[in-house]
User: Fold these one by one.
Assistant:
Number 1:
Amino acid sequence: MSQALHLQVKNMTMAYADTIIQQNLEFSVKRSEIFIIMGGSGCGKSTLLRHLIGLMQPASGEVVIDDINIWDSSVEERTRTISRSGVLYQSGALFSSMTLGENIALPLSEYTSLASALIEKIVSYKLSLVGLAGFEDYYPSEISGGMRKRAGLARAMALDPDILFIDEPSAGLDPISAKLLDRLILELRDSQGTTIVMVTHELESIFSVGDSSIFLDTDEKTMIASGPPKQLLKESSDPRVLNFLTRSV
Amino acid sequence: MAESVPAKYTFDPAENQVLLHLVGDWSYSTGIPPISALLNDINSAKVTAVTFNTEKLQTWDSGLMIFLIELIDNCKQNNIQVDKTNLPQGVSRLLNLAYAVPERKGARRTVLGQPVLTKIGNVTIEMHRSWNDMLNFVGDLCKGTYNLIRGRARLRIADLFYQIEAAGPSALMIITLISTLVGMILAFVGAVQLRLFGAEIFIANLVGLGMAREMGAIMTAIIMAGRSGSAYAAQIGTMQVNEEIDALNTMGISPIEFLVLPRLLALCITMPLLCIYSIFMGIFGGAVVSAGLFDISFYQYYLQIQDFVELKHFIIGILKAAVFGVLVATAGCFRGLQCGRSASAVGFAATSAVVTSLVLIIVADAVITVICQVLGV
Ligand SMILES: Nc1ncnc2c1ncn2[C@@H]1O[C@H](COP(=O)(O)OP(=O)(O)O)[C@@H](O)[C@H]1O
Ligand SMILES: [Mg+2]
């Protein structure tokens, strides 16, 4: 597991039925890097994430994780590869009828054979990492939106994933909470070496944490730029990319 | 992946301090050593500090972290210093993160170990509150109806028509099936007895009276409780989960007028109609059995019913259906508005809407029967 490339997308086309959302996507994510997916609303960022985590099959092209082409391998191998990744959904997607503790314990009890006492310890450790120590017995409806996002992050990290997919972590959060969440994500990458693929609009996060990025466009239906965000800002000549990165219209 | 080396620690009690050698792979999937023996040793050795040597530590994950956290928590309690300098950088950063936000006081909940009396008390308070909710709801409903009569209710006519369509025409198939079968069953069971006296012709009386006064309304109500009552609870409950009800309230639109009244009116209008249909289907089912098995012609059957089953029986049945419609819609909407904010709460709301409706229907039927008896109709 030491190869430098963690995730590769080769000439992929994504479509809902006959409607093509994006085509000719080609990029790779290095191990332990923070990779940012940018683009205007509705250009297909969430759809791209759904392809990367194996929820949707590409219309054509390949998704390769750890040198395994996930759509060209057995169901077991695909499940095993995908279970090594964690996902934080746009809305948190915590199970509303379970407490935070049960939410985080679920992947642990499904995928490991750990004793329940040990699971409990891991759950409270994960909650303390995201600043929610002691909130095991709360239901998602009883905590704030920002806390729900962080609890979702704790659940995404339950199995110590190699790669973490995050959809708009700061959507709907106040600037301070958003910044703290960014810092948390960065800290997790630095301490655990987790690869992170993140959809975000926040310039702050894009420039402060992003190692590499791609920019999707709705009209062209493909990626119109890729590279480290700071370099894109300096060297890109495409007005759409520059406008996005400088927040001008 | 290199072959995993099992996790192991060795313990070097130098003077007053302990050097822990962490060796091998510290992953919870390959197993981490139990910590209790180490804690005992440390606590009994009267040490004042713990340091680490991690030169031979290979891979690690949350398994090492929970081991360390337990160790640190124990040392804090016993005033033992823990020197984290020799831990890998990632580990100490994660430890800092885990201790960065101290547990909020009072956040943890103690759910276990309530005495029985407390539980009984809580249940009683809960019942009282639920009863209050119910009365409030009925009060609001009366106010809403009053507004409606004055023509001031915020009720969207399109909604009303949609609800009428959903409750009425789409229920015809199942009502046809159930009512015809009930009519046939009534006829069959009755006929077997009546035949002993050679009085098969009275099947018509039995089926006509039974369907008109009781079974038409009851069967329609039961079907509608299962079809519409539960749907109302689930729709409104889901709106509760999505904070849509809150949105209505903040816009100053009463959920009672906007959501409950259209459904209530819809059932109030469709149930009597469905009941009439159900009565006729039941009588038709009885006719089929009479003609097929007991040699009573359709015409005889028809004359007998016309002679014997008076209009008042039909009217009582139809009025009952209207009352049941109000009850089913009320129970469904009430349970929906009462719904909690989780997926399972919506399921619970739908179930309890049906149960509440059925109980109310039967109780109301009994009450109406007694009233009719007293009035002599
Ligand atoms: N389930 C679906 N069926 C058909 N089209 C969809 C579906 N989900 C999303 N789309 C379309 O795909 C496009 C991309 O959506 P999405 O990936 O959610 O965008 P975003 O970049 O804002 O996350 C949008 O135009 C949307 O209308
Ligand atoms: Mg999206």
Number 2:
Amino acid sequence: MVYHILVKPASYEYHRAHDLEHALELLGELGEDAKPLAGGQSLVPMMNFRLARPSALIDLARLDELRYLRPVGDGLRIGALTTHRTVETATLPGGFGVLSRAARWIGHYPIRSRGTIGGSLAHGDATAEWCVLAVLLDARIVLRGPRGQRTVPAAEFFHGFLSTAAEPGELITEVVFPSPAPRAALTEFAQRQGDFGLVVVAVALETEGGHCRAARVAAGGVGSAAQRLPAVEQALAGAELTERAFAEAARAGVAELEPPEDIHASAGYRRTLTATLLRRACLEAGA
Amino acid sequence: MTVLAGRQTGVGARVGRHEDTRLLTGRGRFADDVRRAGALHVRMVRAPVAHARIEAIDAREALGTPGVHTVLTGADCAELGPIPIRLPRGDEPASALQPVLPADSVRYVGQPVAAVVAEDAYTAEDAAELVRVEYAELPAVLDARECAPVGTIEIGYGGVDAAFAGAAHVVRARLEVGRHAAVPLEPRGLTAEYEAGTGKLEIWGATKVPVFNRGVLARMLGLPEERIHLHAMDTGGGFGARGEFYPEDAIVALLATRLRAPVTWTEDRAENLVALNHSRQQEHRIAAAFDAEGVLLALTDEVCHDNGAYLRTHGFMVPELTVTMLPGPYRIPAFHARIAVALTNKTPCGTYRGPGRYEGTFAREHLFDVAADRIGIDRAELRRRNLLRAGEIPHRRPYSALNTEMVLDAGDYPGLLENALAHTEPWQAERDRLRAEGRVSGYGFAYFLEKSGLGPHETADVLLHPSGRVTVHSGATSLGQGVETVLAQIAAERLSLPDTAVTVINGDTDLQPFGLGSWASRSTVVAGSAVRLAADAVAAKARGIAATLLGCAPEELLLEAGTLAVPGFPERSVTLADVAAEAGRDAIEPGLAARRRFTVDHMTYPYGMHVALVEVDTGTGAVRVLRYLVAYEVGRAINPDLVEGQLLGGVAQGIGGALYEQFHYDEAGQPQATTFMDYLLPTAEEVPDRVQTLITEDAPSPDNPLGAKGAGEGGITAAGGAIANAVRDALGVPEDLGGLPLTPARIVELADAHR
Ligand SMILES: Cc1cc2nc3c(=O)[nH]c(=O)nc-3n(C[C@H](O)[C@H](O)[C@H](O)COP(=O)(O)OP(=O)(O)OC[C@H]3O[C@@H](n4cnc5c(N)ncnc54)[C@H](O)[C@@H]3O)c2cc1C
């Protein structure tokens, strides 16, 4: 069924997919200017501002097959259409609590109850909590397209400002978090509750007798995409689990960052913020 | 003649807001609720560049779009003339006024350049993209300090130079205030319909100064005023900006008369943020001279006021209020202020709640805190030594403001200071406790003088019906502030009826063609006084009729609970309803009604103090407002609940300006904050839940029969000052903080510099 409707955005065709195969078929048929519609919480505002002008929308809302949270071995698979709110309120297997805690930082309640994890990863905002966590926890992003299925590690998925490894015609079907991270935390700062963070940081520590054996550290808002901070990871390896040690590692690690500047934050302020948030995230994770 | 019914529901009672029943049950009627059959929809084509010559406009493709009726450009409305100033001083250059649609150049991003009319809003928006405007870009001026002023206002008295030369202490600061706007939640919307049969133009949606807007339209369209009817509407906030006469007000009305069809227009938020008046942007170079004891000898200020691209309906009003209100409640032997008004290639500015006072109060009160620290006396003591004392009031400032002599009418400024300090003394202990825990906390306050009740007049009709109910036709406008309730309380008390027996209709130009509208905290004071006069006239008429009916002298009658009676003779009584019915049978002048005007040539000056307790997170720069107090002298609170509501709302907006809101522009003049993701209005999460109010009625105004002073703006006036002073206290910065808003980035910078 094709509808032509009068709406605030530039005009487009609306298609409703009844399952994944149908969605992929429509994507192939309608070409590069067609876009999948998940929760609509990023795409629809951009269309209303006419910053996004898709020729057609393929509504994924009926694809219930992509709404799930499933343990796989030690890991966790999350279907692309799972909402932020579902992750926030789910009882997750041990070691994945950070996902629920992080979800609380996303927007406001109405946004969380519509927005999806797949939409967030596909949108690829540098400060999106899911993007930062995917990079932090070495998640794998599963895509389906005209040439079948492929899996891209998060480290290779986010290419830069709102751009990802997903090819035209491909859909994200799920994200796999391969292993639990019992000592992980995400924290961020925005001036108002519910706004995208100016900087978002997340850490996952492995500890041993009052020390940090190894650390994974990721941040959003310090570059054009969510990224790991290897300098901080190295500085944390072997560090004591004290605020002082965390602060030192954070300070050392942010010195070489070159964050973007915008009306809300200079590069220098973002560096300070990153150091503050890293110290706080380590404290939360190490506690 | 206050009676029982009056005391429960009249002046001073906390009766429920009359407007709430309809507003809270979704039955309010806002601009975009107006539906006229066959209405055409308008979409503005807006300038995408800050400054350019218009080389050509090609609307052919838009006009060829199915459903498009017409495209209006500057060439079609040159004869309308520019938008006039509502309160002109006389020294505003005509070249600074905004045209309805420009003929040859644009001066800011968002300026309307053409209007597309189509069968529906979506077709209009699509077609607006097809209007091709060729621009030859010109250099954009973005820094007001870099251009020649379009006007300068200079006031002062006393020997300023000598005072500074002989002073024991001289304190100076350069302080900026950011560009904010009122941002009412309801964007602008208008519907106009020309009734060809009667030649009448009906208009819905402009709610603030409808009679003035009617006059402007009459002149522009060549229609007699009485053929234009602006309807009373609900509105989702005004705050000074919404309801003024804008280019769109002319465009929509002009299209309706030309096309002979209903025409409707609603702006979207992105438009609203670049098209509605901005406000506040100023730089103050302020200085004060003190003697060795901290007594003020002189105050000076050099202000640069960025008014954006044009002078709109407010002309030089905000700059004038900035300097005339700067001395505030203080005894200042010598004063000099000069404000240069610059036009830049940004959205034009107008008033926003507390215009000129939010800016000036911040500059003065922040300077005074720096001064107290420098001199080495307590910050409150500095105020104590310099506030005008009760015995010095009324106090005349030797200059005029808004064409009125400035006489500070009634007050005990030091009394309110002590009251507010006593109230918040525990907060200082709380601050010290927080500090002992290693937290960064500060206590700060700012004292302010407000102005309200600007005349020169306001008019009201009171009609008493045979049903026993009363209708008021007021020249005020209902902006959500609760003025319907307040006016009903005033009329009810004078007529000894319950407030619920009174229906108030505000701002309908057919019903009340003499109104001046709602702005400048004037409505309760002047519209309320007019209602009181009209209600008293109705009561007097009723008394005369009743006296004839009862065969007694009018003075013998007592008006109580809606009944006129001869005391001691209960059978010799008649209800107001019966009097109204009798009046309806009058052979010459039927009906029980009166129109009265309240005239006043002075403003009345409320005053107060804001106090804030804040906590600063020096790692992120976040400021949390833990506690907040507004102490406010209101003369007479007609309804204390509504006064409190006004103060709380003002605080929320004041915190926005102090910590969150700012319209940024890039070097090319492109606005950078064009959505609510970037223009940070504080939400319920950011506004403190512990805002206290301390409303006093110690100094009723002698200038109006109610004794009332306005309450619309006192909640915002000193918020910038109080929060800046609290943050400065928290960070222990010896100098001034430089300006507002205090963004997290700025706070971190300040904290790092003073660790
Ligand atoms: C006020 C506000 C505040 C917000 N705050 C935050 C925040 O703090 N943190 C945060 O992370 N997000 C925030 N968001 C964004 C929100 O989380 C979005 O839900 C999310 O970014 C996109 O998910 P969606 O399901 O809504 O995707 P949509 O908006 O439907 O789509 C986004 C993009 O992804 C594409 N897409 C969607 N699903 C798929 C798929 N399965 N495969 C391939 N492509 C796909 C779409 O074509 C589109 O290009 C906020 C949004 C708003 C309006």
